[in-house]
Amino acid sequence: MRNLLSLKNLSVQFSQDNQAAPAVKEVSLEIKENEIVGLVGESGSGKTVTTLAITRILPDNAQIISGEAILRDVDLLKMPERQLQQVRGAAIAYIFQDPTMFLNPLLTVGSQIAEAVIAHQATDKLSARLRTIELLRQVVLPDPSKVFFDYSHQLSGGMNQRIMIAQALALNPRLLIADEPTTNLDVHTEKEILKLILTLQKEVGFSCLFITHNLGLIKRLCQRVYVMYKGRIVESGDLNRIFKQPQHEHTRALVRAYLRIGMTPPSAGRLD
Fold first, then answer.
1. 8 Å CB contact between 112 and 195
2. In 102-206, at which residue ranges do the beta strands (DSSP E only) sit?
3. What is the pLDDT of residue 80?
């Protein structure tokens, strides 16, 4: 199967008070066409910085020191900013863990999605609205024509996360990066969101990099996994091998934690 994205020897550092602090150290990973890959590690291990570096949306005090991010045959780290703007959202889209931080409370949720459709696809307002309502229906929101005119504060956490997924899928991206998308949700809603991502991935055919600190979530979605620790990829491979024969001590600790808490919550389990 062909690689969609190849990240090679990525290193990122942060600068503060004339000092440099390494955050990501020579990270390499591959995501193939139409697959869900897991990136797991504790908070602060460098997972989010790695994924933000792919499309160069890092904070101002961050610097990419080295590496390549090959999307098909193009290195995103060398792409001119104007061209990269067309990649963000259209080829690579993100789902973040707290949708309220990324949804404008002064605008209806539908108008925010439609705005992106108009900007990237040069369509008229009516077509963008119809496309948005279809997206809201696709992420299984009740009465999408009404939800289009709702504000984020009128919706539950699970509904706002579905809005974020609809927004991410609006431009038919080839790669969806889901960064801890269920952290703030209850177990029941978490399962619904995971099942939705899995269903949409099969229906639409995008690739997905699923980021979490929870190995149990990785087991329910992914076939391959990368383990990150202190800014480095310390282990990678087939999910069954990682669970049965973890090689790195941090991976073994993650597996032990997963087993110690009773595998998965009572309402969880495989989603497919």
1. no
2. 175-179
3. 96
Which strand (E) or helix (H) includes residue 164? helix 157-169
211: tokens are 């980021």
Residue type, 30: E
Beta pairing partners, 40:
212, 227
Given this model, what pLDDT does residue 266 score? 37
> What pLDDT does 265 receive?
42
DSSP classification of residue 237? E
SS3 call for 148: coil
Report how far Cα 20 is from the mean position of its chain's Cα atoms: 27
Q: How many Cβ atoms are within 10 Å of 245's Cβ, its own excluded?
A: 11
10-residue mean pLDDT profile of the chain (272 residues): values are: 94 91 97 96 95 96 97 96 93 91 94 92 92 96 97 95 94 95 89 93 94 92 96 96 94 89 48 54
Amino acid at 86: Q
CA 146-148-150 angle, 5° bins: 75
CA separation for the pair 167, 2 (Å, rounded): 27
Q: What is the pTM of this model?
A: 0.91
Contacts of 169 (CB under 8 A, 6+ apart): 93, 135, 138, 139, 176, 200, 204, 206
Domain spans in the chain, listed from the N-terminal domain onward: 105-172
Strands 74-75 and 19-32: unpaired
